[in-house]
């Protein structure tokens, strides 16, 4: 295998192999942009190293060859005493994992080459010693595993309140000595002086950082596969810390918060890259670079335009200016908020850069779902205490907490918290995940908190400099004498950047109002409207709703449902009516049973009338009752206690006997669905009659009758015959079909289709039975361990397991259609509203997906994306 690629050899399509950073550095190199020369070690080498615990054979030789070539082109050798080549060693996986893995800068410095570097920089001793101390600090922390605070504390002691730029060469030289002392104390060895040894160790440290706890946590959060590995980029150093004519910055080609075009970025004079992200000193807005260095500024703007036109998308970049010369260190298609994603997609269409088809593929159902979150009520009384930067939109309310541990602790108890920090660093990840929102007093829109929050779709206000945050004291103060202690409730608005004391009420988002029928007014809603229309035009899958009352049905229609795919009739018997079902199930004889059925029938009929009215001439799939008995019978423990304490009536005693008789160890695998219909005479017939009578009352109604939980065609035949007779007698036309939610039904679909005019996959039960996972229990008991072990990346109850459950779906679809070519096929498990599962349904040739009303826009969009 070839493990090393020069920047001139790669391109942006090689992200699997070169990681995102490496692939894009290569792309920029080939575009002729000023990228410092270098090369990339592949993710394949990383995977080998992580699996075998050793670098793959031949890697050292390949790296040496590329390093030689690099040295030749630069005219100096790595670590050369009188004129050293220095390199950075930077991680870069296929998917960006901001700040989660390691990077080491200034490799190649030692006690000799530091003088060479100073000489080459025109006698700039300060710069050389600053670079050297940075190397020992980063190398010590990331490669040698020394506690970073030891270095920070030594630096702070030396600064004694001054800025790091105030330190002079002599002081930095002394700092290097104390850093070397720290390394010796902590590891028992001297800091490695050999430049090639430094580089080799740094490469392995970057590989190892793939499995750092925070990286693992981030991947799980972002659903990034655990087995990809990271590439390593070795790049000749350029220096932003040479003095006032140097610096480093980050920028976006347009606003990642709103999508608006303009100049968005932060710049830090006389600094190296890490300083910007870490928020060590406050950055200045990128616009001010124009005043400092107009030539570099103009060049940067023109490069940004080149990149946008080339990638045809928002890009974010990292750059460094070394004594007036601009260098590009990174670019990628940038993360953005959900709102920006929709705006940018349509803007790029209007600029002629992409087509509407592409625009639809540029946004996701998850982003749309985020736009449907509620926002703060503009009319509510609120007490605003400060304003920061609107880093990641949304409305979050919760108790203020000041540490990640505390955030996780309270969240585990079910409390909503807002994580308040001066700035966040990658170690705060667990707290950021646990919190409803994140508030920081320092750092710009490119700070760690902002980048990570945007990626997670979590509300974030950052850089609220009016706040004085005391994390140790678990308190912050705001102007006007406001003090907020841990546990006090605050509300933060990630769209406006405002911070409020107390709980602010939330209202529906503008996007939800649009789906409810409001005219699109603001530009975000207009963008959503355009994209939804195009997705609807492109999709082949129908979208239906799971709804069992007229209100949900009506909302589903407003949200674009083309029918009801699952009306769960047992849901009509919860609440007051539960008693009637209980009476039915426990009925002692035919007479009691008939009485219970007679009581239920008119209620059922009026339920169906309401739903048919809401749905007009759209099809309505009504599933006959499927009550897992444990959800409907009285609690056995409560009854037993009553009997034992002598409080029970005769009726209670009879009830207890009946409940005991019907008690099941595995109710989900017990007397439910079609089984109940076959065991309780008259139950299904009553429901079918109610459906037929309701349909006669509502002109245009299109009922479809669905039999649940069959495993064999014979079950279906028994029910079908009776149902068909009732329909015929009433003169009502209705399809009769079945759910496919047991593995046996799926595997015998060819037979089942003889008796079914449609199939609907109940993937909740199908998943439960295919995996043998109790859908009520396992997510709470052992799924977190399974996720940790990587047995699956996401719960199979959330995203359809293509390999197992998906195969059952595919087999049943194919064999069902072989029997009955016009068999209509849908899915109505929770997966019907899950983006990845919608794509699966499209690929497998289903006719429609059915999901809860609020997921319908997501399903429409994803069905459109799947078709493009
Ligand atoms: C299913 O099993 O996927 C389904 C839709 O039915 P229920 O969730 O009601 O069991
Ligand atoms: Mg089911």
Automatic annotation (TrEMBL):
Domain PEP-utilising enzyme mobile intervals: 415-497
Pfam families for this protein: PEP-utilizers, PEP-utilizers_C, PPDK_N
EC number(s) on file: 2.7.9.1
EC supergroup of this enzyme: transferase
Chemical reaction(s) catalysed: pyruvate + phosphate + ATP = phosphoenolpyruvate + AMP + diphosphate + H(+)
InterPro entries per record: PEP-util_enz_mobile_dom, PEP_util_AS, PEP_util_C, PPDK_AMP/ATP-bd, Pyruvate_phosphate_dikinase
Keywords on record: ATP-binding, Nucleotide-binding, Pyruvate, Transferase
Cofactor(s) needed by this chain: Mg(2+)
All copies of domain Pyruvate phosphate dikinase AMP/ATP-binding, residue ranges: 59-282, 289-339
Residues covered by the PEP-utilising enzyme C-terminal domain: 531-864
Family from the record: Belongs to the PEP-utilizing enzyme family.
Listed name of the protein: Pyruvate, phosphate dikinase
Annotated source species: Nonomuraea harbinensis
């Amino acid at each position: 295998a070839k493990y090393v690629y020069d920047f001139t050899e790669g391109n942006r399509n090689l992200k699997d192999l070169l990681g995102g950073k490496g692939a894009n550095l290569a792309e920029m190199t080939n575009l002729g942009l000023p990228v410092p020369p270098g090369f990339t070690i592949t993710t394949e080498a990383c995977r080998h190293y992580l699996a075998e615990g050793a670098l793959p054979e031949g890697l050292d030789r390949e790296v040496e060859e590329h390093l030689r070539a690099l040295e030749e082109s630069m005219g100096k050798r790595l670590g050369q005493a009188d004129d050293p080549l220095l390199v950075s060693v930077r991680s870069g996986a296929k998917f960006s994992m901001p700040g989660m893995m390691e990077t080491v800068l200034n490799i190649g410095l030692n006690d000799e080459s530091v003088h060479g570097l100073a000489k080459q920089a025109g006698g700039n001793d300060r710069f050389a010693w600053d670079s050297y101390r940075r190397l020992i600090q980063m190398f010590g922390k990331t490669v040698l595993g020394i506690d970073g605070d030891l270095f920070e504390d030594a630096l702070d002691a030396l600064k004694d309140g001054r800025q790091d730029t105030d330190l002079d060469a002599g002081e930095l030289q002394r700092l290097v000595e104390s850093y070397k002392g720290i390394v010796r104390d902590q590891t028992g060895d001297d800091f490695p002086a050999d430049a090639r040894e430094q580089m080799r160790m740094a490469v392995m440290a970057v590989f190892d950082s793939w499995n750092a706890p925070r990286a693992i946590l981030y991947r799980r959060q972002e659903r990034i596969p655990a087995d990809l590995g990271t590439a390593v980029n070795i790049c000749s150093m350029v220096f932003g810390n040479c003095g006032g004519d140097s610096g480093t910055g980050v920028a976006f080609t347009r606003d990642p918060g709103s999508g608006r075009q303009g100049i968005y970025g932060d710049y830090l004079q006389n600094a190296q890259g890490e300083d910007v992200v870490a928020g060590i000193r406050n950055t200045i807005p990128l616009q001010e670079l124009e005043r400092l260095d107009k030539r570099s500024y103009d060049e940067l703007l023109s490069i940004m335009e080149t990149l946008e036109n080339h990638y045809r998308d928002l890009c974010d970049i990292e750059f460094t200016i070394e004594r007036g010369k601009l260098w590009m260190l990174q670019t990628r298609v940038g993360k953005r908020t959900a709102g920006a994603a929709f705006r940018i997609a349509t803007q790029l269409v209007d600029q002629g850069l992409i087509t509407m088809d592409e625009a639809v593929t540029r946004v996701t159902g998850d982003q749309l779902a985020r736009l449907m979150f509620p926002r703060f009520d503009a009319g509510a009384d609120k007490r605003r205490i400060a304003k920061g930067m609107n880093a990641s939109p949304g409305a979050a309310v919760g108790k203020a907490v000041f540490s990640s541990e505390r955030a996780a602790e309270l969240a585990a108890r079910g409390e909503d918290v807002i994580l308040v920090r001066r700035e966040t660093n990658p170690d705060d990840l667990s707290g950021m995940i646990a919190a409803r929102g994140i508030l920081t007093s320092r750092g710009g829109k490119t700070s760690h908190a902002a980048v990570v929050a945007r990626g997670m779709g979590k509300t974030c206000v950052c850089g609220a400099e009016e706040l004085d945050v005391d994390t140790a004291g678990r308190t912050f103060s705001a102007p006007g004498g406001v003090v907020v202690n841990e546990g006090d409730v605050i509300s933060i608005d990630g769209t406006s950047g405002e911070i409020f004391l107390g709980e602010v009420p939330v209202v529906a988002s503008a996007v939800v109002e649009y789906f409810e029928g409001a005219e699109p007014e603001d530009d975000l809603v207009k963008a959503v409207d355009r994209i939804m229309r195009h997705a609807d035009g492109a999709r082949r899958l129908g979208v239906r709703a799971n709804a069992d009352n007229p209100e949900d049905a009506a909302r589903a229609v407003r949200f674009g449902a083309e029918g009801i795919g699952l009306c769960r009739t047992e849901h009509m018997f919860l609440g007051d009516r539960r008693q009637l079902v209980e009476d039915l199930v426990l009925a002692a004889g035919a007479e009691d049973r008939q009485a219970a059925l007679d009581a239920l029938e008119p209620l059922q009929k009026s339920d169906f009338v309401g739903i048919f009215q809401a749905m007009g001439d759209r099809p309505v799939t009504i599933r006959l009752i499927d009550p897992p008995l444990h959800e409907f019978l009285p609690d056995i423990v409560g009854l037993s206690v009553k009997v034992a304490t002598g409080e029970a009536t005769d009726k209670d005693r009879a009830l207890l006997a009946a409940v005991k008789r019907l008690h099941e160890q595995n109710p989900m695998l017990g007397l439910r669905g079609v089984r109940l219909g076959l065991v309780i005479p008259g139950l299904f017939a009553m429901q079918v009659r109610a459906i037929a009578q309701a349909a006669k009352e509502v002109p245009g109604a299109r009922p479809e009758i669905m039999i649940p939980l069959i495993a064999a065609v014979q079950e279906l035949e028994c029910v079908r015959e009776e149902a068909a007779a009732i329909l015929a007698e009433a003169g009502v036309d209705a399809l009769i079909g079945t759910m496919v939610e047991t593995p046996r039904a799926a595997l015998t679909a060819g037979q089942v289709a003889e008796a079914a005019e449609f199939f609907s996959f109940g993937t909740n039960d199908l998943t439960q039975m295919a995996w043998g996972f109790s859908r009520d229990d396992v997510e709470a008991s052992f799924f977190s361990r399974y996720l940790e072990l990587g047995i699956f990346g996401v719960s199979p109850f959330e995203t359809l397991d293509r390999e197992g459950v998906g195969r059952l779906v595919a087999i049943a679809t194919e064999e069902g259609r072989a029997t009955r070519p016009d068999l209509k096929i849908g899915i109505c498990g929770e997966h019907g509203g899950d983006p990845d599962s919608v794509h699966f349904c499209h690929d497998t040739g289903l006719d429609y997906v059915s999901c809860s009303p609020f997921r319908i826009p997501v399903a429409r969009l994803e069905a459109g994306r799947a078709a493009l």
